[in-house]
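Lab notebook page, bench 4
Experiment: in silico fold of construct C2
Operator: M.H.
Input chain length: 950 residues
Purpose: comparison with the prior construct
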Amino acid sequence: MEHFLYRLAEKVYNDYKSSLSEVCLVFPNRRAGLFFNKHLTGFIDKPVWAPSCISIDNLMRELSVLKNADDLALVYELFKVYKEKTNSQESFDNFYFWGEMLLRDFNDIDKHLVNAADLFMNLKSVKSIEDQFSYLTDEQIDLIKRFWTGFNPERESAHKTSFIGIWEVLSDIYSGFKSVLTKKGWAYEGMIYRDVAEKIQRNETLSFDFSRYIVAGFNALNRCEEILFEELNKRQIVDLYWDYDPYYMDDPDHEAGYFLRKNLKFLPEKEVFVKESGFVIGKKNIEFISAPNDTIQINVVHDILKNEQKVSKESTAVVLCNENLLPSLIGVIPENISDFNITMGYPADYTPVKGLLDMLLKLQKNAGKNKKYYYRDVTGILNHQYVISHNPELYKEISDDIIRFNRIGLTDTDLHRDDLLKMIFRKTENPADFSSYLLELLQFIHTDMGTDNAGVLIEKEFIFRIYTGLNRLNDLIVENNIAFDDISLYYQWVRKIISGIKVPFTGEPLKGLQIMGILETRLLDFDRIIMVSMNEGVMPVSGSASSFIPYNLRKGFGMPTIEEMDAIYAYYFYRAVQRAQNIHLIYNTSRDSKQTGEMSRYLYQLKYETDLPIAEKKVVYNLLSGRKKPVTIKKTGDVFNKLMEFARQGSGKYISPSALNSYIDCSLKFYFRQIAEIYEPDEVTEEIDGAVFGNIFHEAMQILYTPFIGKTVNAVDLEKILLEDKMLDAVLKKSFKNIMLKKPDEKGEFEIEGRNKLIFNVLKKYIKGMLRIDLNHAPFDLVSLEEKYRGKFEIEVNGEKITPNLYGKTDRIDSREGIVRIIDYKTGGDSNSFKSIDEMFDSSVKKRPGAVLQTFLYCENFISATSCTDVILPQVFKIKTVYSDKFEPGLKYSPKKGTYIPVGNYNEYRNDFRNAVCNTLKNIFDRGIDFSQTEIIEKCEKCPYSGICF
C-alpha cells in the first residue's frame, strides 16, 4: 500500500503546485515534515520554493508572545509562589518531585481550557455544584458530585482534611504562578496553548503567515488545538487529513478510533485517503516473539536485522516501546546495517560522563574531614576512560601501588602527581565549590580529548551537553541565591538536570534503518516493523501519571484520564502496523516488580479479533545442565616441559603440601595454578577475611617466638609476655601493618580502624590463649619457625627416575624429652581425624582430611631433611578452640566409626604415607594422565577457576 505521507505529498503537489511557498503543513511532530519533503521531491520536476513544515508546538509558539522557559526554572518559580501562598518551610529539594507533578497538572488545565478557580473549589454542597457548573454536561456534573459527596464533613479523615487543605490553596498558587511568569514573559507549554486559544475566543487578531494550512495526521486533540483548527476551518484556510484505517474506525467500540471518530464530526477531512483497510487487503506476515529477558529481546532484533535477504534497510523501523533499551540496541546493530538513524536521542544518564560525575560525588562525600580519599573511589576514577587516557602509565602505576601496598586511604601527597590529579583530588568544602569543581573538570577533559575520530566527537558532545546543563543550573542557583546544606542535595539537582538531557544523534534522518520510540511513528509507514517490549504495562503504559487532580474531577472537567491514554496508545500501535507487511512483535516474559511478563493486549486483539495469520515463536535460554564440554589438558610440549621444572634442582619450582592437596582435589586446578600460573588478581584488603586473619596470627606468633629459635622456652618467658600487654599490642599492630600494607618498612603511623579494631582484639585474645597453652607445655626447645624443609621422594615414571622438588614451610617445630612436635596453626574448621591413609589421597571423597595430609607431609619433610630419629608428633592447633575444653591438637586415626586412636608417632604411619605420596607424584608426572576436572561439583563452588570450567 502507498504510504500516507506519499499520498499527502502527491495531493499537496497537485492542488498547490503553483503556490507551494504559501502552504504550511502542520504535523504532530517535526519528523513527519522530513519524510513529507522527501516524498514531495519525487513529484517536483523544476526548482520551486518548498512549503513550510511545522510541528503543532512550534506553531503555537509562533502565535504567542510568550516564551517557553526551562523546566527547572519553572519549577523553582513555582516553589517560590508555593512558599509565599502557604508559608511553608519546605526545602526546594523536597518540593521538586511534586512541583513537577503540579506543573504537569497546570499544563493539562491550560491545554484543556479548564477554569482553574472552579476546579480548585472546595464544593461539598450538591446544590452549589449544580449552580456553579451549569456550563458543563449532566454527565460531567454527576462525576463532580460523586467526588465531592465523598468529602462529607461529618466523615472526614485526616487524609481528607489534609487534601482539602492543599486543594484550597492551589487556585491561588496557579494564578500567582501564572502572574509571575507573565511578568517575565515566560510560559510553560500549556500556558502558550491557552494564550493562543483565548485570543481566538476573544476574537483578537492572530497573524497567520500562510494562505493555506494543511493539518495532517493528528489523533487526540486538546481543547486548545480544537479551537485553533476550528478557527482555521472557519477562515477557510485549512485542509484537514486524518490518518486511519477503516478496520478500527468503522468499529464504534474499537479504542484506536475513539478520538478520530469524535474529530471527524466537527473537523471533516478534505479528502478520504483511506478507503480500503490495510488489515484486510495486502499480505501481512506477523510474528509474536516471546523472550525471557530484555537482553534476549535485543538479540532477537539483531538476528532479524542480520538476515540481509529479508530486511530492506530503507523501509525498516525498530520501535522501542521501552526507550531505556536504546543503549543495548546500539551495541548489537549488525555490520550489514551501515546506515541507521536514531530519532530518540541518547539519554545522558547512560553516558560515561554521568558515571564520572557519580564517582566524583562519592569521592567528595567519602573524603570527609580528614581529606583521605577512599581507595575504591580513587581506583574507579583513575580507570575511568576519560581520566586514564590523559596519562595511562602513571595512573596504572598508582592503581598497582594501591593494591601492592594495600592502601585504603590516600592523601593529596599520594595523588597530586600531575595537573589533572591535582584538579580531581581536592576536597570541596561546600556545594558552590563542588559546582565549580565539576565545571572545571569537564572543561579540562573536553579539551584534553582532542578530535581524533567520530567516536571522540560523540563523547565530546556528551560532555558539552552535560556541561551546558550544569552551567544553566549554576546560573539559576546564583541568580536566586539558592543555598544547600550539603553536596548531596546539590547533586540531586544535577541528577535531575542530567536525566532530562538527551543527546541527539547526527546522521542522515531519511537514510537507512530507523530506530525510534512509539511517538515518532506517527504518520510514518514502513514495510517492516520490529516492535520491542510489546508488554502489557509498557504498551500501553500502565496506570496514569501522578496528579493532584483526582480521577473524577479530571473526567468531570474534560481533562485526560487513563481511558484516554489507553485510546491514544491503541491508535499509536494500530496506525504503526496498519500498512506494514512484515511485523515482528517482541515481548519479555520475565516477571518482576516493574513488569508482569504478559504480552500486550494489542497482541491478544490481533490474535483473537482478526483473521490475520500469526506465527508465535518462543526464544529460550540454552540451559546446560552441569558443565560445558569437559576441560582436559594433555601433558605434551610446553606443558610437560614446565611440569618437569618441578623435578629439576635449582629451578625454584616446587610442590608444596597445599599444591599436593590441590592436585588430589582437582588436577585441573593444580594445572591452572602451578603450571599455567594463572593467579587470582591482587586486591586491596579493606576488611580482614579468613585468610588474612590467619596470616596476621601466623605473623604475630612468628614475631613473638623468633627470639627463642634454638633456645629453650621457659614458663617464665611466656608469663612475662602475657603480662606485657603493650608489647603484645605492638607486635599485633606490626603484624597488621606487615600483612595489610604489604610494606613493613614504610615510615609513619599505621591506624587500625573500623571493624578491624574488633578483629585486633579477637586476635589478641587468641594469641594469649595460645601462649597459655604453650605455658602448660613449657619448658620446650624451639627448633624452627616458618622453616622450609625438603622431602626426598624418588619415583620412576615415563621410563626415567626423577626426584620431585617437594617442600613444605612448617609453622613451628619444637621438642621436649625426645618428642618433636610438628605444629600447624589452623584458623578454620579443618578436621584432625582420618579413616585411613588411602582416604587422604582419594579424590572421590568430598571432605578429605587435607589438613592431616598436610601435617603428615611436614613430618616427612622434616625427617627427610634432618634424618631425625626421635618421636615425631604431628599436631594441628585450631586457633578458634584455644579457649574450649575441646582443644585437642593431636591427630586421631579413626578406622571405624566411633573409634579414635591418637597418633602418637608419625613414624608408625610413615611407610604407608610415603607410598601414597609417591603414587600421587607418579600421577602428576605421568605423561599419559591428563590434567582434568574433579567430578565433585561442590569442590568448584569457591574455586577461582570455575568460570573456565562452567
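Observations: The chain has five domains: 4-65+206-266, 70-187, 285-345+507-618, 362-496, 684-923. Confidence is low (pLDDT under 50) at residues 623-627.
Next step: discuss at group meeting.
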